[in-house]
C-alpha cells in the first residue's frame, strides 16, 4: 500500500509517495535521493542513518516514513550553510580527522549536534554522576553519549576531540 | 634522504581532499549513484549447510505486484566461467554452506523484492554437514601455499632436539576467533548493461581487479566492462576481491534487461563477503639460561570452505620476528561446509602475532626477563629464514620510544600487584610488524590541462585510507609543483589500471607509478609544458626486492583494568609507536594507526562470530550481537612513529600503514591482562568469564 507524505528535508518542503513499509531512511535515500543519511545495518544498531528529526537525533532506519508525515528533517548536508561553509561540528571533524571512510560520518555529525543540545538541556547519561547541575561534557560523557554511532575505521578518539572542540 | 624523492608537500598534515564531501554526506557511495530505471534485487539464501536444492516454488513470489523476475538455478543465465565456485552463482543446485545464494528476486522496489524473496519456497535434499574446526581432525591437509604465495611449511635446524635441550621451554596453544570485517558501508553493486557493455557501480578496493575478475566470469571482454567507485565506506579486505553479489547483480541485470541494484544486508554480509578464519596456534619455544631463543615452532590449524581454498598465513610472522637457530612453521587446513574465508585486515600477521607475542611474553617471564629486554635479546641481525639483511628494522627503537612515552620504566613486573578501587591494573607490551610490499600493474597518466593544472589519473582506491590526499601530495612533489596545482582522478576503470588497495601496498605501488609518470612527463615536456601534453608511467622493478627483507615494525603498549569481583575488563590506555618508513600525510596516517589499534582492541575484547554447529550459521549476525568497539570502549589511545629512512623499499621510502596498527594490539592487551590478574588468557576474545574460573 502506498501513501503520500510531506517532509521538510534540509529546509525544502517535499512530497513523496512511499510504501507503508518504507522506512524514513529508505524514503530519503531511495525515493528522494537524499543520501547523506547512510544505511549501515537497517536495524538501529550502528547509527549511520542518524538525522535530526524535529530537532532531535533519531535513527531513520527504525522509523516508518508514513508515521512521520509533516516531519522536519535535517541531514548532515543541511547542517552546512548555503554558502558551503561547514557547521562548527563539521569543521571540528575536519580539523581532527575524525573519520576515514566517511560512511558513518554524517550520522556521527548529526548525532553530535543533537547530543550537544541534549547536554546543554541538562539531559543526564549513564555516566552522569550529578543529576541536578549542568552536564559537564567530560571525555567519558561524550564517549557514552556517542556510543550509538559505530565507526569501524576506529576514529573514536578523534571524534571525541572534535566534539570537545565544537562544544567549547 | 638520499635516493628518495625529496619531500616538500609529502610530510605535510593536509586536510583530506574529500573531507568536505564526507562531513556533509555528499560523497557518493556505490548504492547511491542515480541510475534511471533502476530495479532492486534481494537474494534468496540456503537454509541448510549442505545438500542440494530439489525444488523451488516461485509462484507466490511471481504473483506479487512489482516483481520482475525470480531467478533460480533453473532459469538464471549461464556464466561463461564457473572456475571460481564462490562466484558461480545460480549455476547448480548444490548447497555448500548455509546462507549461500540459491535464488534472487528482482522487483521495482526494495520492499517488494524483499517481501517476494521471503515467499520463495525451497525444498532441499539435505546431507550431513561438517563445520567443526578441531586440531585433532583426521582430514587436515597442507595447502600448496598460504596467502598470497608463501610456502606452507618451513623448517631449519633440529627443532625437537633443541626443544629437548632447552633450559626454558614453552608449549602452549593460542586461539583466535572467527571474525567478520564489517565495514560500515555494506557491499553494494549497481549493474547496468548497454548492449554488450556493462557498467558496475561497486564498493570495491580495486576497480581494475573487479573488472579483470568479473569479465571472464560473464564472458565479456574486459574493455567492455566499466567499474566505478570514487568512495568506499571501508573494506578491511572484504572488498579486495569480488564476491558473489557482484556477479549476481550483473547476471540479474542481463536477465531482466534493466539496471539492477543489490545492496547486501548486514546479516547477509556474515555469509557472503568473506571473513577471517578462526585459528588454532600451537607454539613451542626453547631458550637458554640467558634468555636467547634456541627454537621457535608454530603449528597452525585453521579452516577454509569446501568449495574454495583460502589459507591464512598465520605462522608467517614467526618466520622473521626473532632469531633462533632451530625453527619451523606449518599450516594445516580443514575444508568445511562454511562460507568462503578471505582477507581481513593484516591476514596472517594479525592472528599470528597474537599467538607469537603472547608466547614471547610468557617466555620472557619464564626467563625472568623484562618483555622488552627479552625481545631486544632475540633481535635477528638478518631475516632468520632467508638470511637477507633487513632494508630497515627499527623494532628496538619502537620498543624503547614506546617504553619512554608509556612510562614502562617504573613498572613492577609482579602480576596481580596493583589494585585501584576494586580494579586490578596491569600493563603489557607486544611487537607489531607488517611486510612492506608493492603490487605490480599500476599505470598513471599525467596531463597538462587547459587550466594549467596537472591532471593525474589512475584507477586507485580510497577506502578511508587517504589516497585522495596522499597521492596528490606525492604527485605535487614528483612534478615539483604546488598541491593546489594537481588534480587527481581515481576509482574508475576508464582511468589507467591500478593495483588493488590491499596488503598495505597502495601508496607504495601507485606512488611509484606517479613518480615514474612525472619523470616521463618532465623528460618529454620540461618545466613549461603546453596544454594537452601527456605522459604515462608505471611501477618500475625494484632491484632491492630480492636482496633485502622489507618490513615495517611497531611496538604496542596497553594498560588494562580488570574488575576483581566481576572480571569486567577495560582498556584504559593504548599507545603504539611505529617504524613504517616515510609518512606521506601525518594527519591521515595517524588515523590509520589509531584505527588499526582500535580494531585490535575490538578483536581483543569483543569480536567473535559465534557458529551454531547444528545448523552451520553465524548466530550473532548483526551489529548488536557481533560487537565491534564502540566509542565508550576506547579511552586513551595514541599513535606515534619514528623517523625512518629506508632507501630500498621504493623511491618514496614508504612502507604502508593500513594494517600494522591492528597487529600485536590484542597480544599487548592480553599480556597486560595477565599482568593485572595473573590469569593468562590464550583464547580470544578476552571476556570476563575467563578471569573468574
Key terms for this structure?
heterodimer, A: 168 residues, alpha+beta, Ubiquitin-like (UB roll), five-stranded mixed beta sheet, 16% strand, B: 693 residues, Aldehyde Oxidoreductase, domain 4, seven-stranded mixed beta sheet, globular
Structure description:
- Chain A is an alpha+beta fold.
- Chain A contains 6 helices and 5 strands.
- Chain A has helices at 24-31, 76-79, 88-95, 105-120, 139-145, 156-167, and strands at 2-9, 12-19, 50-53, 56-59, 72-74.
- In chain A, strand 1 and strand 2 form a beta hairpin.
- In chain A, helix 3 (88-95) crosses helix 6.
- The longest helix of chain A has 16 residues, at 105-120.
- Chain A starts with a strand and ends with a helix.
- Chain B has 693 residues and is α+β, with helices and mostly antiparallel strands.
- The termini of chain B are far apart.
- The interface between A and B is large, with 60 and 65 residues.
- Chain A: One of its GO terms (molecular function) is oxidoreductase activity, acting on the aldehyde or oxo group of donors.
- Chain A: It holds the Pfam family Fer2.
Itemize the secondary structure elements and their pairings.
The complex is a heterodimer of chains A (168) and B (693).
Chain A: E1 2-9, E2 12-19, H1 24-31, E3 50-53, E4 56-59, E5 72-74, H2 76-79, H3 88-95, H4 105-120, H5 139-145, H6 156-167
Parallel strand pairs in A: 1-5
Antiparallel strand pairs in A: 1-2, 3-4, 3-5
Chain B: H1 19-23, E1 39-45, E2 51-57, H2 59-62, E3 67-71, E4 94-95, E5 101-107, H3 110-119, E6 121-126, E7 145-146, E8 150-151, E9 154-156, H4 159-165, E10 168-176, E11 188-194, E12 197-202, H5 207-218, E13 225-228, H6 244-256, E14 260-263, H7 266-272, E15 279-287, E16 293-305, E17 326-336, H8 349-366, H9 371-377, H10 395-406, E18 419-420, E19 423-435, E20 443-448, E21 454-457, H11 467-479, E22 486-489, H12 506-525, E23 534-538, E24 551-563, E25 569-579, H13 586-605, E26 611-612, E27 617-618, E28 636-641, H14 665-677
Parallel strand pairs in B: 1-14, 12-13, 16-17, 21-22, 25-28
Antiparallel strand pairs in B: 1-5, 2-4, 2-6, 3-5, 7-8, 9-17, 10-15, 11-12, 11-14, 15-16, 18-19, 19-24, 20-21, 20-23, 24-25, 26-27
Helix pairs in contact in B: 8-9, 8-14, 11-12, 13-14
